[in-house]
Amino acid sequence: KAFYWYQKATENGNIDAQYALGTCYENGIGIGKDEASAFYWYHKAAENGNEDAQYALGTCYENGICVKKDQFEAFYWYQKSVENGNKDAQYALGTCYENGIGIGKDEAKAFYWYQKAAENGNINAQYALGTCYENGICVMMDQFEAFYWYQKAAENGSIDAQYTLGICYENGTGIKTDKDKAFYWYQNAAKNGSINAQYALGTCYENGTGIRKDEVKAFYWYQRAAENKSSNAQYALGTFYKNGIGIRKDEVEAFYWYQKAAENGNINAQYALENGSIDAQYTLGICYENGTGIEKNDNKAFYWYQKAAENGSINAQYALGTFYENGIGIEKDEVKAFEYFKKLAKQEYPNAQSKLSLFYKNGIGIKKDEAKAIYWYTRAINNENKNESIIEKDYNKAFEWINEVEEKECENATEWIKNALKNERVKLIPYEELINKVSLHAGGFGHITKSFWTKTNNYVVCKKLTNTTDIKHGLLDAFIHELKIHLYLDYSDRIIRCLGVSLDQKTNEYLFIMQYADGGDLQNYLKNNFKNLTWDNKKKLAFQIADGLNYLHNENVLHRDLHSKNIVIHENNAKITDFGISKIQNIQNSTVYIGNFGIVAYMEPKRILDPKFPYTKSSDIYSFGVLMWEISSGYPPFKEVDDKITLAISINTGIREATIPNTPYEYEKLYKKCWNQEPEQRPTVNEVLDEFEKMGFSINNKSIKESVKENNNITSKSQACDKSSEYIQSSDLSSNLCINIEH
């Protein structure tokens, strides 16, 4: 209605209405935003003498709003507006004279117009007048007068003036020093968004300036300012992390913020990076090498290993040797690699001694010398090199063992499937019995479909392995690995069961056939049903997962990738699925992918920065604790965190999700025990089940069919685990499969 009546008024020649109509178009009041129309009506009203429109027209010309930038035209309209008494235009005219906008620079006239506007109540002019008096711009320097105008502007809401007033009170500029008032004004400005004030407030809390010393609050305000790109605050935050002030000590996070500050030109941060903790430099190298929470970058990994190595880190020196050996992040140089390994070998570094042995044996970076090869191999064994400890101490046979490892080839995976079917170790499901196929995902094996199995009158899930005749061994071996794990396991209601294998004779494509879950994965189930779940429902889901995990651990199987996409719901009951990277703990001749896998939020914290940290049953318990929290909240952990390196570092330093209000105490207490930072302090799965029994949930013997083996699809464990290997695959059927097989 306002727009309507302004429009009507303009039709009658009302000048003020012309200006008002311009503001409506500019701000979208009663009509869609239209800068061109806004300019038109400002111009109309300005020509008719409206001072506010003249000022608005000046800003249009100065900033190029719906008209080509024209500083001279901007100055002209500011001047016209001033002649008609507009105080905002007086301030604008001052900035024109100060900065030479549309007129030659003239500080005296700038001061004059700032003073006129300030006296008329313009807060920006009041602040500008304060800076003139403080710095002696076209007026004798006068700190008291400067303080007066800063105070006027601050009281009228100028954020810059509030921060500056804090400085005046802290340093006694134009007023008696008063730390309490300095804190007061910093706090006002900080809460209003001043980045400089946020940093200053951090220093107040850190040093107890005008407020009781509080390192936690100091950390908070440094963090606020750092996130707003204050290089000083970023450096301060790095120092807090480095020394454990107001936060748990974290060298990696310290380096992260030093790096941010250095990029923004902070000299102290640049020095700290170059001369900082060798452990942090080495750890940063690991992060970049493995892509742990940060984009993988071999060049940066090399740089930080080199920095740590120069500062004396023997681990970094070894890493540099491997980089030169393999040409990672630097041009391949086997001679330099040899020199690094030789230097470390003399310092009794076992891995380097083992490397040196191989270099001498194969003539890598040095002339072949079998005697020296055997000598260093012997030294490595004597130093109990973990990689060599399983070797019998027969040095004449040592190189025979090495050659066996190097020459060993992959088992022909296709032949394994054929033999397994021929010997009835795996059930063959006729392809023609699978009808009404519906595509679900395009996964690492090929296509994931839902099919109807006519023989059982039930839906099943099919993982179709495509192009088996030409495919790499790694992908096919991964297919077999998961099949072997299923064959190893007895039947349990708490896991998704393998039903067998099918083969499309027309295309020569294998299909892995599994039970179908009607409720989808746990993550989506919670998303769609959470509001209807009672606490008994939530406890039941958590208990069922623990029950399934108990079954796996009793069979000495480590799942190693428990998260809400690998738990599925069938008839409102939870089942564990996806054993692509599971490991049979007591199979000593199998090998494990060395590195990180899975989703960071659910991962064993100790493995986040140390991929060699052993994965044990307690690691599954940690993941289960995170799942318990997710069931209590209805959404995945740390869902708002996009920065993986920050998340990885936070978890590794003990940060966890906050407890959801109204969570039963005994439930909260249990999942916090499960996600304890230290593996040895976590409960076993049996202890977890004991706690659920206290909550009223216990194992129903009918739900677990012990040692049930069906001749048509299950075989003995000794057969199933023959020549078993571990593989990396995606934890989600819809994700791509990554394979790394070691033999």
UniProtKB/TrEMBL annotation:
Keywords: Kinase, Transferase
Record-linked Pfam families: PK_Tyr_Ser-Thr, Sel1
GO molecular function: ATP binding; protein kinase activity
Highest taxon, organism lineage: Eukaryota
Secretion signal, residue range per the UniProt entry: none
Residues in coiled coil: none
Domain Protein kinase: 434-697
PROSITE patterns assigned: PROTEIN_KINASE_DOM
InterPro entries noted in UniProt: ISR_Activator (IPR052748), Kinase-like_dom_sf (IPR011009), Prot_kinase_dom (IPR000719), Sel1-like (IPR006597), Ser-Thr/Tyr_kinase_cat_dom (IPR001245), TPR-like_helical_dom_sf (IPR011990)
PANTHER family: DAP3-BINDING CELL DEATH ENHANCER 1
Protein name per its UniProtKB record: Kinase-like domain-containing protein
